User: Fold this.
Amino acid sequence: MSTSARTLTHLDELEAEAIHIFREVAAELERPVLLFSGGKDSIVLLRLAEKAFRPGGFPFPVMHVDTGHNFPEVIAFRDRRVAELGERLIVASVQASIDKGRVVEETGPRASRNRLQTTTLLDAIEEHRFDAAIGGARRDEERARAKERIFSFRDDFGQWNPRAQRPELWNIYNARVRKGEHVRVFPISNWTELDVWQYVAREQLELPSIYFAHEREVFRRDGMLYACSDYVERIEGEDPFTASVRFRTVGDMTCTGGVVSEARTIGEVVDEIAATRVTERGETRADDRFTEAAMEDRKRVGYF
Amino acid sequence: MQAELLRLVTCGSVDDGKSTLIGRLLYDTKQIFVDQMEHIEETSRRRGDAYVNLALLTDGLRAEREQGITIDVAYRSFVTPRRRFQLADAPGHVQYTRNMVTGASTADLAIILVDARNGVVEQTRRHAYITSILRVPHVTVAVNKMDLVGWSQDRYEEIARDLETLGLADLHVIPLSALEGDNVVDASEHMPWYDGPPLLEHLEAVDIAYDRNLDARRFPVQWVIRPMSGEHHDYRGYAGSVAGGVWRAGDEVLVLPSGRRSRVEAVETADGPLDEAVPPQSVTIRLSDDLDVSRGDMLAAPEHAPTVAREVEARVCWMSEAPLEPRTRLGVKHTTRSVRAIADELVSVVDIHSLADVPGPERLHLNDIGIVRLRLSEPLAVDPYSENRETGALILIDEASNDTVGAGMVISAR
Assistant:
């Protein structure tokens, strides 16, 4: 071994790994698609895709599964960002799935379209004959994810079988899919929430405004703060009030809670995250709170 | 904060207190969030545990929690002000060889757990053996449960002496108690005779900058960037991850397997040109000449080229329920190149007790490690694994099921 040493930071290494994964998917799969939610993780994915393929174009389209209940700021951001990149955007609509009778809308104050997304996603994968869907899931998000591979194979029903995963050795990824199968690929598997924010800061990435503290009309439910909107029915006693909040994750308005915050810049958010004592999903995602194994159950039926 | 990344693998069984050690590392470095902690406190209560069971922090799936087992390799992160850690947690039950090989393949450092009451046992030797064949550059042995041997210095020294016979790379031996938290993050008050650092402090200090292979330039071409439009009409860049050496503009290049030569015009990323690139950076290399180079080709230093081989002898860890028999046809993926192979000969298999190579096995079973001679359908540019952990590694694929059925480390090639 040589005697000279060169130091790369953890962000350099994580970035190199993610770019490597992007290029493997593009090279080994016929019809990949990059899933984009408008959230910080998928914004990082877009940047990594630029790093992997520029000056060429992306060898895949970008797809958003739109519940119709997203924060309007996020939708506006999505359209602008994809146009800037000059890449192709596909919008798979949960509303269309409802209209076609593929899924039935939940009703009541706790109704959410979050779980309906799975059907829309699987239908879109089938319609476009995608064999790989690249997503921004991270292993630090949730316990079931810690056991999931970077290349995570799904059967015809989109199901994840944790007991039949391929071992992943070195940086050699076995990307072979059987007919009817597809693979979910997670280039930032090994990143943490803090890594993502540090990378956003380093790369000076623009984020939707809801990630930063802003005055908003909210109400309190189950100890979380929800944005008031037409999509959420309030229960008696859930009185709206104005607070300075920001959102740690970007999901449906129906299931994404905000946190009280004064952090208005990326630097302030990084400091707040570094000091936080609650996981982002535990703090702000109602969808993971239903049961002890909520994420595991949803993944088994095809959720990301 | 800009910290170095250290990739760890932990080896040990449930009985060694591995989950407790990891839970302790996460807990004492304050990686455990309030909601996670509330969750395991509640689960501990429900299970009737006498204390908050930190091992529960690492149980991922429902079946694991119900049965108290670990199914598969889990990957976790934690961070201290000095370093960012990525941990592959390989469980210690039947499939441990397959899992440990997987975890060790990417590791900078292996933590091997030893129960202070039992000392160096057969399993310890197996763990040591796997870390050495996977060439994990640093090994730290956590002698756990020191509280159960009365914090005995004699016992520790006896175990440390036994460990020295195993030929481990950069060996450090740390006496600790994961349950009590001694010498994991905080120094132990029970073992004043130990003057080394606690485990975490050691992990923060291990020097990994010299582990990168900067000797012989290797660059497997992963993707060809050809925009064929506008200002980039004539652009042709070879994208990939540096697998060896230091790459700079002006370097001589040998393209394999074709054997053609050229020179590096530029080393760049989407953000612009680089002065140099080292492993494991993902970059794009442009060449001075218009050659026909595609994915699966290897760019290399002409004065120190890999072997372009049609036959390799590799140490293989077999990972499938269906045994490997002589003459089996397999898919092989090596760097970015996929070829087919026939397992011409099973040369030997490791006796799991003596760790000696026993010649002429009839087959390799799940979790067996053996030497296999592979005949390749097309040439591969390979190095011995002992010289390069990337260009000396390959995976074996069952072409019917598409499953990854083996991990191979090249010993020799021709």
Q: What stands out?
A: The CA atoms of residues 262 and 268 of chain A lie 8 Å apart. Residues 207-288 of chain A form one domain. Chain A touches chain B through 68 residues (CB under 8 Å).
